[in-house]
Amino acid sequence: MKKNQTETNSKLYKIRHSLAHILAQAVMDIRPGAKLGFGPPIDDGFYYDFILPEPIGSEDFKEIEKKMKHIIKQGQAFEREELNLDKAFSQIDGMGEPYKEEYARELAQKHGLKSLTFYKNGSFLDMCEGPHVESTKEIPQNCFKLKSVAGAYWRGDSNNTMMTRIYAWAFETKEELVGHVRAYEEAIKRDHKKLGKELQLFTIDEEIGKGLPLWLPNGTVLRDEIEKLMREFEFEDEYKRVSTPTLTKAKMYYQTGHLPYYKDGMFPFMEIKESEDSDTNEAYVLRPMNCPHHHRVFASQKRSYRELPVRLAEYGNVFRYEDSGSVSGLLRVRGMCMNDAHIYCTEDQIEEEFLKVMQMHERLYKLLGLENFHMRLSTWDSEDPKGKEKYVDDPKAWDKTQNMVRSAMQRSGLPFVEVAGEAAFYGPKIDFQMKTVTGREETISTNQLDFAVPKRMGLTYVGADNEEHMPYIIHRAPAGTHERFTAFLIEHFGGAFPTWLAPVQVKIICVSDAFIDYAKEINSELRRNFVRSEIDLSSDSLNKKIRTNTKSKIPNLLIIGENEVNDQSVTIRRYGIKEQETLNKSDFINQLLKKIKSRSLN
Ligand SMILES: [Zn+2]
Ligand SMILES: [Zn+2]
């Protein structure tokens, strides 16, 4: 439980820690007989665990906060008391706190302590190491707020009693608190699991399996549109598409060097008897990555330096084992589809190819209106004493390739940082780090230069000198996996996707059934042009229809009434824009098609 000194001595740490005591004090007041667990400061505030005689919910927060504020105002002093073990345990006995006692006995025994410390403020006594503020008066007013109630096992062990954990935010200034709470509420509103359900994008069905999302029609549109976009980018940059199976011999991963180290991240092997008379089985596995398949495609024919770089692309399905407790939404899954490609090139081509990969990222981000990103170059750490186990042992190759990658990064003009010691075992790695709308930093894509696996897998090309040479490989995935990238986009757009990406691009609403023929005419014309248009055929009132479709965040609602039929026009309500607009029908369609084609953001 020892934290580093500078951290525990900071003013904010003391404030948060003291507030935890004050929270317990207030809870004991409204729930006499409550038993105490732990109450530490955390990143954005503090929590305290309780066994409660009666449950507490967010409806009780006001009362608890009021009591806490009252205690703060009283200026109660925090008094430290250090007692020898005999006295300490008789004091704990008197407190009637079985969990504190259990922990105290363990602490004393494990660390051979001679004494224990207690802190007292007002009538509240707690066994703790401190430090605390001198007086509750030092705690700034209105800088804390109770956040939530959750269940938590005593000491994090599921064999133990379930306690009630009350979380709270706490900061040194009101501005920080307000900013933090706002970001949190925004994140809740934009949560991909919540929006995924509301907008019918995907579902997790336990009958199918944990961590295996089912993409609903609306979510499948998002996948298809992103995939189409990436295919276009890759086509322009002269990638070639391949299709390879998701089931493969496990020995491929021994060849690449991922096994045995990566075994925990893979599904169990399947033993398959390849022929009647063989007495050994072959181990097959759901692939955790597409790399060896593409490498074998490269190796399927003799390659000349003249055809390099060879760029092989595939949106490939991969499966990674995650334990059932950690799978969640689209971010922690067991099956995913990856925007994968491998570029096989000569040493001279590395820098140029890496530059193009970075430029593809830039184009993608620009199109989506993403500006807050930087690259992170993870290099080999020549000083690392364990370096020989962690990385391919070839210092010259590391230096050479890192210099080429770094130079490509400089030429790209995109911001980057460099971190030593986080490279892949087979070469330097570039991550694209994105600051999300809710302020988190997320890795959106990972790219690697590989100078080791080609050797391990015996990949070669014939050079101008007629000799066999080893190609370099760039592993790249600008749009990551469909699962992660879609989760990110749902949050980024808050579910209100630009027209080109929106699952339903146009919804047509008739003022009355009398105008349905004209609505059908527009709908067919839009669909002939591959616009995802639908007519609202519900029996709801006009206002209800508008409300429902606005809630579904459909970017273009067309309202059709008598005037529109007579003038061959449409009235449009655009999502997020108050004023509606009436346009000639063909002008509207032309505008819309142009917008979709250019993948415009508004
Ligand atoms: Zn304390
Ligand atoms: Zn790869």
- Indicate the mean pLDDT: 93
Count every helix, treating DSSP H or I runs of 4 or more residues as helices.
Answer: 19
Note the overall shape.
Answer: globular
Bound molecules: zinc ion
Sheet of most strands? 8 strands, mixed
Which structural traits does this protein have?
binds zinc ion, 8-stranded mixed sheet, BirA Bifunctional Protein, domain 2, about 600 residues, Threonyl-tRNA Synthetase, Chain A, domain 2, 5-stranded antiparallel sheet, disordered N terminus, single chain, Rossmann fold
What layout of secondary structure does this protein have?
Layout lengths: L4 H5 L1 H20 L4 E2 L4 E2 L2 E7 L9 H14 L4 E6 H11 L2 H14 L3 E7 L2 E4 L16 E10 L8 E9 L3 H17 L1 H7 L3 E2 L10 E2 L1 H20 L3 E2 L5 E3 L1 H6 L13 E3 L9 E5 L4 H9 L10 E10 L15 E11 L4 H18 L5 E7 L7 H4 L4 H18 L3 E5 L8 E7 L5 E10 L2 H4 L4 E2 L5 E2 L2 E5 L5 H12 L12 E5 L5 H13 L4 E3 L6 H10 L4 E5 L1 H6 L1 E6 L6 E4 H13 L5
Helix pairs in contact: 2-3, 4-5, 7-15, 11-13
One zinc ion binds next to α2.
